[in-house]
């Protein structure tokens, strides 16, 4: 059995094992752990420069900018993940007496499997963006799992929070800009025109 086949088997086995662990933990802890992983990745992608500056000025001064960037990214990701885990444990205790039963365990399996899948996907995507990609990629050409991990990892890394907000605004959320007298009311796409009320008319 070649390397690629073993890789696919190990990845699938790891996902199933973490899914079983999720059954034992229940949905609440797994969901917050998943939020910590995905949210931490997004937060680290957007705000790693803040972490880099803090680390460089208060913890350790790096001479290598690439190493500082890597450490800042990982540190911010881990901190966010740890905070979500603590919140998850607290919430789990609050709902311990709710008796969610089968749904709680089934949800834990889905969340546990999804968590390890997203971690592996993110790792693959990050490695693909480094100089190691040219050396590593040829080994996974015949893999069935690696392309799926890459696709999911690229999607996570490229999540654009601002774009999501803009899309929500386009759905018809009313927005009033402060310090301006013009009020814009966003209407449905099928409406004829955007209504503009000019409060400064007559000046």
UniProtKB/TrEMBL annotation:
The record's GO CC annotations read: membrane
Membrane topology per the record?
A: Multi-pass membrane protein
**Keywords, comma-separated and alphabetical:** Membrane, Transmembrane, Transmembrane helix
Species the sequence originates in = Campylobacter californiensis
Pfam families hit by this protein: Colicin_V
Segments passing through the bilayer: 6-24, 31-47, 67-88, 109-128
Q: What is this protein identified as?
A: CvpA family protein
InterPro entries recorded: Colicin-V_CvpA, CvpA-like
Tell me the domain of life.
Bacteria
Q: Where in the cell is it found?
A: Membrane
